[in-house]
Structure formats: structure tokens, C-alpha cells
Amino acid sequence: MEVKKNTCTEVSNIRNILSFIILIISVFVTYFTTAQQLNPPIQNYSSTEYDAASQNWDISIDETGVIYVANNRGLLIFNGQTWKLFSLNSGAIIRSVYAYDDKIFTGSYREFGYWKRNDMGDYSYTSLNSLFNDIKLGDEEFWGIMAYKNAVYFRSFGALYKYEDDRIAKIANGVFTDMEVFQNKLLVAKGRDGIFVVDNNDELQFFAPSSKLIGSTVADIEAYTDQLIVGTREKLYTLDEKSNEFKLMSGKLNDAIAKSELNKILAINNDEIIIGTLKDGFIKWNNRNDKIQVFNRSNGLQNNTVLSLDIFKGQLWLGLDNGIDRMTTDSPINFYTNTTGELGAVYDLIKEPNQLFLASNTGVYLLDDSGLHLIEGGEGHSWNLSKIGDKVISNSNSSTFQIINNKIKILDNSTGSFHTRLSPKNQILIGTYTGIGVLKDTFFYKIDSIGFPVKKMVFENDNVLWAAHPYEGIYRIQLSEKLDRAVSVQDIPSLDSLKHFNSQIYNINNQIAVYSNQNWYRYNAFSDSLEVFEELKDLNGFKLLEQHDNNYWFINTANDDLYFTNLKTEQFTLPAWRLENRLVKGYENMTAVSDSIYYICLKDGFARVDLAALMKEQHHLFISEPFIAGFKDANKKYSLKEKPDVPYKYAGLVTLDLGLPFSDSRDIAYRLVGNDSVTGIVENGELIFQNLNYGDYSLQIYPVGTNGKDFKTFEFTVLPPWYLSLWMKGVYALMALSGIGLILWYNRRRLRKHQLLIEQKFEKEHKERIDRLERERLMDEIDMKRKELANTTMMAAKKNEVLMEIQGELNKDKARINEYRLKHIINKINGAVKSKDEWQVFETNFNEIHEDFFKDLLEAYPSLTSKDLKLCSYLKMNLTSKEIAPLMGISVRGVEVHRYRLRKKMDLDKNENLTNFLIKKF
């Protein structure tokens, strides 16, 4: 008996434990379920789309919005239009990437360097390995890069390094797992040893608050404003300013992290952070309300292992173990997507507290916290859901039924129906496949005299109803007072002679409005006909989706863009890509649930649109600038630094690579201005022109939605073909001459040529004769002057020689001659010998023959005196020392001494003849 009691007790305890576990699981599921979670837009880029390896270890975004990814196969770059891969020569895996200034630094296995865009628009790599000098690299891979105080720090699991001023220095050895700048300090996580500060001397100082983290490996550090967050694989800590120590963050958040294994942390703003995990995608946590959202494969991600994170202008980029994903973090549009295919295309929905009713092509569903459920009996195609009072009515392909307590009640199953409407007399009218039915309490009957399908109904007044046939037109129906029969059915003719096909009818500002054949009309009661709706004339081609109070949503039927307006000041366009191009074509539907919240039906779910957030977003749009990333013709690629000249034979295929970093405008519009002018939208970042005519071209590119005001211009020239060049045109002109004219021209040309040859020969002979005579005359004149100079010089020498002899004789007889008289005579003789006038005459005549002699001599030897120049001039005339002595009024010995000193000044070799040197060189 005791054994049985103990057994019961154990069973009871087990049940209690199981109940507790179930309770915990239920609570956990409540917090982290994704059954009804509305997700912001998530864009998947698979490895086949970006054409590289699956794993993406790091992401960095530059200031323009260009994405750089460290991929297993190299550096992956996304310019907003196309993905491009640039691999290292070694083919090594790139583990880290960091965009800084105009360089893209990357780290790999025993490899560190940077990429830079070249003139061709491609990226070229510069290795910095040569700067390691005496630093011995082990089997290191560089996993992290960060800029701090104009230097670049990079780490491996073996050491911390610094690159600055073209030098690389090792700061410290150790297992470094992350780096972060906090309060202008560089923090580094050193394995299980805690966090350190890199001081101004590049030495590590222990960061005291991290003492609590010693023993745990720090996986990531994130700083924003004055807060510092540190994550280990299992826990997340924040730095408490008061106690100056790390404290555990929200318990719910750490519970989620413990199960998912933290890998990366990214702060979106002061209130929200992203935690990338290795096992369960990423967690978005709101610090303000402690709300947790989990994003993984079940709600949009390609893979549950997040290797890297970065954010730019509200766009979160995730490098995954298999692919790259992008999510809008604070999107005014959120999605519910049924990935199983069970739901199908949604045609209408109704929002109720804590649940949604969805009408789809597979049935009517209930969506609540527990998930998506098909309402029993609600199978089949459902077109419409209407909430009238407390009734939810479905118009389906086979019947009309009411939903009561999540079960159906058939109202009419004689035929299918399209639409349900409440009349001004509070009667429920149902547009069916065969006419109009009236639901009065639980009694359903058909209105007489209406036997055509009615897709939509609008009341003009209590008894006048407008009905739209799905195919054949629009009808104005006068009903009886009891709404039991049609008094009259008027077929409304169109204004454009085209039949009203699939026309839409509305009540806009108490006016019956008709959208037919892409045009807007309204009913004029005085003329009893349709007329152009002037106020909506600019919206031709735009179908109305929803009107709520004074807010109107239209859809551009050409491209599925949504257009919002209050018909006053507020207006904006919501591009189709914002709804991921998931509208149900031809059956687009939108439902207002409040002044700001709208739901839009999609092919595989629905979207929730916050109008207030959208309008706020419109005032803070970020539009990036497009750029030319490459230009080539059929033969080669051109530099983007200069205007390309494309040969005509290669202009058959001109290709431009264009980039538009990710922004609120995703497409590039272009205008090509030139001999061939064309406009359009760039597809997939590549613009191709074929068979361009020759001439100058100006390509204008601008983001779609900016109306082309702020465009970028790129100019290039297509050269004319060879057969249209100027010289070929001359050839064509010559070939056009007639045969007789050609012969005449040829004969005249020959005659003229012969005449010209004779004239040229005569002119040549005449010129040669004139030149010869002129040359002879000049030579004779020079010879004559030379002779005159020589004669004059020799006469002066003879005169001076005689005077010097007389002077000598007088000096012999000076005892017999009066001393005063003798001195007077000798002075006169000396004056005659050294006459300046005589030298000036000589110098003038000498310069006429040897024009630049003195100038060239002084340039070569600026230290020569006037006496040296005299001696040089006499030597130039090839005079002997004996002939020179009387000209200079000195003895022959004096001339020899002067010649010796002159040689010294000119630094002549002893074997060099001074006279020959002056004659040859000057």
C-alpha cells in the first residue's frame, strides 16, 4: 500500500513537472511564435543570383550605399543593380571586409590589403603583405577590420595589428574576437581574458568593467550613443553607468540567445538591437517595450546561420551561411506570407480583434495567434468578405454564407456571388452570378427583372442602384419601394464608343463615378448621361482601390504602382516593388481598418500598410545617385576618366554598366540624346545600345521618381565609318565627273603639272644663281674687310714699331737732350702707340668680321680683362708675337708672358695651341 502511494506521488510529481514544462513552452511559443507575426520586407539573394559561394563572412557598406561582402570566393560587390565578384589571385577565402575612405580593406589567410576602383570601373587589389617586414605570420586569418583615429586596425585569432602611414605594426599577441569604438576608445575583446582598451601608445590596458566576463569568450561588442553591449555565445550584457560593470540584459532575450547561440550584435537605434545567431536566424529586440521578434527560415530568411550584419538607411543586410538577405527594419509595410501554398491568393479580408478572416481562391480562413485555419465548410473560391453589423458574409464561387462563431451558415447556395452591400434602407443586397438577392433577417429572395451577373453595386439614392456587369456594361436600376423588383433597368452607354468591359463603379463625394476603358466619368443627373470627371482626369489609367474618409488609394493599371491622394495636398506613389510585386493581377483589393492602417491582398498572403508611417517616410526619402560602372563597345572596355571615342565598326553593341546604391528608388531611368535619341528604364543594371549612328551622344541617367531633374551625364562619340570620312567624300566627288570632263581635267592637270615643273625648275635655278651671287658678294666683302683689317693692323704695327724705335734712340741720347723736353716727346710717342681711338677703330672692324667673338669669349671666360681680349683678337687674326708687340706697345717678351697668363686663365692643356684654339672655338 505504501509502495502504491509513493508511486502515485511520483506520477503526480511527474505530471506537475510535465505541466510546468508545457506551460514554459506555451509561454515561449507565445513570445516567439511566427504564426501571425507580420514581417517587414525581406529580400533573398541566393548564391545562384549573386553567382558566388554560399558563405558570406562579413559585410561593409560605404557612405554611398554600395555593399561589400567577404565571400568564400572573394570580394562580392553590389551596386544596387548588379552583383560582381572580384577574387584574389590565390583564390583564398576573404574573411573580413571594411570600407574606409575610397579603399575596401579585406583580410584573408595570411593576406591583408585593399581594393580600389580603377579608371575602367573595376576594382583592383593592392596587397600590403610586404609591410609586415620582420613580423612572422603564422597560420592566421584576419577576421576583423576597423578604422580608428586615421589608422586601420585588424585582428586575427593570433594577434592584433595596426596599419598607418604605409606601415604595419603588431600591437599584441592573443586570441582577439572583436573590436569596437566606445566613447572615443578602441576596445578589443581578447578571447576569454575580457576586454582591453588600446591606449595612445598602442598598448593594451584592461577594461575594468569586463572583469565579470573573464572566463567567457566574448563573441561580439556593439556600442551606440552611451551604451555598450557585449555578447558571449549564450548571454548578452550591457554596461551599467552607475556601477560601471556589465549586467545581464532582459531575461527573455537571454533565454532566446541561449537556445540560438549569439554570433553578431548590431544596434539599429537607441531602442532596438539585432542579434544574429548561429542556429535560429536573428532576433530583433526592442529595449523600450522588451518586445522580441525572431526571423528565421520559417518567416523569410534563406538560412538560420547569420555570419555578418550591417545596416544602411534602414536596410539591414545579413550575410548568411547560405546567401545574403536584406530586411527593412522600420518598414511602414509588413507582410504575412503563407509559404505552404495552402492559403493561395487572397481576394479580400476582414480584421477582427485578435484575428483575421481571409477570402482566398481555396476557401475562407481564420488567422489568429494559433495559426492559419480553414473554416469548416468554407472551401472553394471566395471573392469577397463583408462586415455588415455583426455579420461577416462571404461571397464565394458556389454560395453565399455567413460566418458565425467561426462556422458557416449558408444563406444561398443556388449560385455563386460576387458582392454584398447594405442599402440606405438597411437591407442587405447580394450581387450574384444571376442577379441581385436580398437578405432580410434569415430570408433570402431574388429581385425580379434582373437576370444578369452583378459584380458590384453602388446606391445613388434609396431606390436607385448602379450595378456593374463583369463583362458587358453598367446599369442604372430603379427599384421598387420594397426593393423586391426592378422598376427599370437602364443600360449606360459609354462616351468613347467602346463597350464598358470590366468597369468599376464608385460613390465619390456623393457622385456616381465610373472607371471604364482607363478613363474616369461621372453621372450627370440633369443630362442623364456620363460625362468626363474633370477632377479625376489626371488619374486616367488609375483604378480606385479604396476610399476611406477623404483618403483615396489608386492603382496604376500599367505598372501596378499604388497612388495615394487626399485630392488636396497629400499625394505619393507606392511602387509595386514595395509590395514585392505580389498583387493579385486584375483583382487588386485594399481594406481600411482605421484612419491609418490598411490591408492589401496578395498572391500568397496580405500586407499591412501604416499610412501615417508612410507619409512620414515620404518626407525623409533617401535617393542615391546613379553612376557609370563600366563602358565598352564590341571590341574593348574604355576608361571612365575621359570621353570615349567608339569606332563605328564596333558601335553595333555599346554596353554600359550602371550602379544605383540601394535607396528608396530602385530603378534607373535614362535619356540618350544624339543622332539616335531614346528613353527608358535600365534593366538589371546593364544598358545596351545597338547599331548607334555616328555622332556625339549625351547619356543622362537619374533615379526613377525624380522626374529627371538631377541627372548625371556621360558623353561619348561614335566615330563616322570610313566610307563617310572627308577624304572619301572627295573621292566620291571625283568619281562623279563625266568621262569627257575627267579626260579634259586630266590633260589640263598634266599640262599644268608640266608647266609647274618648268616654272619650279626655272625658279629653282634662278634662286640658286641669286644665292650663289649673293654668297660670292658676301665672301668678297668679308675678304675685303679682312684684308683691310689686316693692312690697317699691319700699318699700325709698323707705325708703332717705328715710334718705339725712335723712343729707344731718344733714350740712348737722353744725356744730350733736355730732360724735360725728352720726357715730353716720349709721352707723345707712348700716347701714339697706345691710342684708344686706334683700338676702337680696330675693334669696330674686327666685330664686323667676327661678330660674336668677344661675347662668346666672355661667356666662356668671364674673368678676362680688356687687355686679354685685345691679345685674343690679335691671336684670332693669326698674328705672331712679334707682330702683336708693337700693337700692344710692349716687348715680344711681354707678349709671351701675357700669352702664358692667358693660357692659365683659360685652363688650356700645355699641348693645346692658343692661336688654333681661339680660331676653332670662337
From TrEMBL:
SMART domains: HTH_LUXR (SM00421)
Annotated protein name in UniProt: LuxR C-terminal-related transcriptional regulator
Bilayer-spanning residue ranges: 12-32, 722-746
Matches recorded under InterPro entries: Ig-like_fold (IPR013783), Sig_transdc_resp-reg_C-effctor (IPR016032), Tscrpt_reg_LuxR_C (IPR000792), WD40/YVTN_repeat-like_dom_sf (IPR015943), WH-like_DNA-bd_sf (IPR036388)
GO biological process: regulation of DNA-templated transcription
A single MF term (Gene Ontology): DNA binding
Organism: Zunongwangia pacifica
HTH luxR-type domain boundaries: 861-918
